[in-house]
Design brief:
Helix content: 55-70%
Structural class: mainly alpha
Low-confidence stretches: 1-8, 158-163, 178-183, 185-196
Strand order of the largest sheet: 1-2
Strand content: 5-15%
Distance between the termini: 18 Å
Shape: elongated
Number of strands: 2
Mean pLDDT: 77
Radius of gyration: 22 Å
């Protein structure tokens, strides 16, 4: 069986991990900017906390979230690595799905709450905060959730069983986890339906 030459472009399995990594680094950078005193965009995001800046908010809400975003970037980088196998790969995918779910619930949940006004937030959330949250922040969280979800989905590696001809003329099963093989259906493949 001859191998096709590998492409120099990013494979789809690594592309979403790279996008998720960039998303997390950008969000971390924004939180670190706010933590060191930057205020552009913070007042429309955090409301009164932006002007008061209590210590707990700066430590947990800005530095802490920035650090979590950097951990998210590391996770996304791991999801983009094609050679990750075994328990580390399973753990990275599980964490990727968890991060994806949290970001999607945050983005979609807050969007629904603000659009339906089920919690009557009129007194605690300014009109400017509501507008920017609906137009920028919630879609940003949804984009991150989709990027992490697709990175976790595309990082999935499974073992493909191919029937290869032997020297004696019969066929023998051979296992491979080569992304070039496991991402397409091959003649003689007897693995899951995801082998495409």
């Amino acid at each position: 069986m001859s191998r096709e030459p590998r492409s120099t472009d990013a494979e789809p399995s690594t592309l979403w991990g790279r996008i998720a990594c960039l998303w997390a680094v950008a969000f971390a950078g924004l939180h670190f900017y706010w933590a060191v005193g930057g205020d552009v965009g913070l007042s429309i995001s955090a409301g009164p906390l932006a002007t008061e800046r209590p210590l707990w908010f700066v430590v947990a809400g800005l530095w802490g979230v920035g650090a979590l975003c950097l951990l998210g970037a590391l996770l996304a980088w791991l999801l983009a690595r094609p050679g990750l196998r075994g328990v580390p790969a399973l753990l990275a995918r599980w964490l990727g799905w968890t991060v994806s779910a949290l970001l999607l619930v945050r983005g979609i949940g807050i969007e629904v709450l603000l659009l339906t006004d089920t919690t009557h937030l009129d007194t605690s959330v300014s009109e400017e905060q509501r507008t920017w949250t609906l137009a920028l922040w919630n879609p940003w969280f949804v984009a991150g959730g989709l990027a992490f979800g697709l990175a976790a989905l595309r990082s999935r590696r499974h073992t493909c069983v191919l029937l290869r001809p032997t020297a004696a003329g019969s066929t023998a099963a051979a296992r491979t986890t080569d992304p070039q093989v496991s991402n397409r259906r091959h003649k003689g493949c007897r693995c899951c339906a995801g082998c495409e």
